[in-house]
What we know:
The protein is α+β, with helices and mostly antiparallel strands. The protein has five helices and ten strands; from the N terminus they run βββαββαβαβαββαβ. Strands 1, 7, 8, 9 and 10 form a five-stranded antiparallel beta sheet that branches.
Amino acid sequence: MQEQYRTLAREGVHEIEINKSRFLCALAPxxxxxxxxxxxxxxxxxxxxxxxxxxxxxxGADGSIQKAxxxxxxxxxxxxxxxxxxxxxxxxxxxxxxxxxxxxxxxxAGGLIRxxxxxxxxxxDTLGTVTRQRFRLVxxxxxxxxxxxxxxxxxxxxxxVREVTYGAEVSIELGLPESxxxxxxxxxxxxxxxxxxxxxxxxxxxxx
Length: 208
C-alpha cells in the first residue's frame, strides 16, 4: 500500500476562454468509478447545449485506474492531455470533466491539447490539493474517569481522533502511522497508569 497520496481539496469549476471557445473544467474528489461516472453524467445534464464533455479520472492510491474520453474531439487532443495533467500533478481519486462551448474558431490539434490540459492544471491550482497519509486504526478503551483527560491529551499531542463512543467504558478510535505504534503503546501505558486497553484495527487514509 502507498504510504500517502495527494487528492483534490474540494469540488469546483474553473473556466478559461480561448479564441471564443469556453472551456469549463469541473473537478471532484471521487472514491469509485461509479462516483466518477455519476459526476460526469451530472455535468452533462448541467450543460446540455455544449458540444463536448471530455473527461479523465485517476483512482487508487497508486493511480492504478486511469480512464479518459475525447467525447468527439479529434483523437488524443482532449481526454489524454487531461489525464496526463492529473498524472503529472500526482493527484488520485479525482475526476475532471471539461465542457467546451465552441466559439466558431478551430484551434487545431496543438491548440486543443494545450487548452484541455491547461484548464485542468489551472483548476487544480485554483481548488488546491491535500495529502492523505496511511494510518493504522486503533481503539483505546478506558474508564470514564480518565477518558476526558486522555482525549484532550491525544488531541494536544497531534494524534488523529476519529470517533469517541461512550458506553460502560469509553472507546476512542484514532489513526496512527504504523511507525508510531510502539511509541504510542508506551505513552498510553504511562499516561493511564496501565489502565487503558489498546486494540489494533485495519488501515485507512486520513489527511495530514
